Write a sequence for this structure.
């Protein structure tokens, strides 16, 4: 099942069409895309038998953040070995956790204003929580996942790394710096949620500087996560209570721009994709 947000209304996506949840459920589930998380298991049960005959074509750019108002947004740093190496910060003993403030979240197809000279990309798997989790063991935490989405953790490095102490959250929270979607995809739609290809491709000036039509700086796989989804949610839930609809940006594989002396420029189009989940297309302006 693929739950998305089409111009503020909850929809189920299938084969290029969108089914309006409120109409198809006869009002049982409201149009508010957050409402499905009030009782995620009931929603999943209803969606399994939903009649898609009234589904209609839609435009990707009309999709908004599939979880528009999560109570909490977590993001994880240094969660792939190859990325921890390029960042030159060693492998973490515990997850490195920060937030992206709500105001940075957006839908999958957007224009993003480049705020400075050191804007970077980070392709990431986003996990959406489906039930309240506190002190959950790894199996319980994994069973509490509602679904997965593609995320892009845009980062302004100068602000993120401004001394004397790094300010990860602020430098990653400019408007439009947290696109995710196109939908919340349940695990049954995926061959193996623990082994998904993660890719970031760039066209425009940054690719042209390399003599390329398209430059693909990131090609990773979620099987290389240092803290995979179960252990990660178990760890977080041992400290904070996780709520239905909370989202977690799980970290990025190697290939970010900064160690290569690359920063995003106006005109760049960043396409972030994950196997089975779809893609984000974000244009730098
Ligand atoms: Zn990140």
């Amino acid at each position: 099942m693929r739950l998305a947000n089409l111009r503020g209304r909850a929809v189920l996506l299938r084969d290029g069409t969108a089914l309006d949840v409120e109409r198809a459920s006869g009002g049982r589930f409201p149009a508010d895309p957050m409402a499905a998380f009030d009782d995620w298991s009931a929603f999943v049960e209803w969606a399994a038998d939903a009649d898609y005959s009234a589904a209609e074509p839609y435009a990707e750019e009309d999709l908004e953040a599939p979880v528009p108002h999560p109570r909490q947004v977590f993001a994880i740093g240094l969660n792939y070995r190859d990325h921890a190496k390029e960042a030159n910060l060693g492998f973490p003993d515990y997850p490195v956790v920060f937030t992206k403030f709500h105001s940075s979240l957006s839908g999958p197809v957007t224009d993003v204003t480049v705020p400075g000279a050191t804007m970077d990309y980070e392709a990431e798997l986003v996990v959406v929580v489906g039930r309240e989790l506190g002190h959950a063991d790894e199996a319980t935490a994994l069973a509490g996942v509602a679904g997965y989405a593609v995320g892009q953790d845009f980062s302004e490095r100068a602000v993120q790394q401004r001394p004397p102490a790094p300010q990860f959250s602020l430098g990653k929270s400019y408007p439009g710096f947290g696109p995710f979607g196109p939908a919340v995809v349940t695990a049954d739609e995926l061959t193996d949620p623990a082994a998904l290809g993660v890719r970031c491709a760039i066209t425009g000036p940054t690719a042209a500087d390399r003599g390329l039509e398209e430059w693909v700086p990131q090609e990773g796989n979620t099987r290389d996560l240092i803290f995979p989804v179960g252990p990660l949610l178990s760890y977080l839930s041992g400290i904070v209570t996780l709520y239905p609809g909370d989202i977690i940006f799980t970290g990025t594989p190697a290939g970010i721009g900064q160690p290569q002396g690359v920063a995003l420029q106006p005109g760049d189009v960043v396409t972030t994709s994950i196997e089975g989940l779809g893609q984000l297309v974000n244009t730098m302006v």
Summary: The pocket of zinc ion is lined by residues 75, 122, 124, 153, 249, 251-252 (CB under 6 Å).
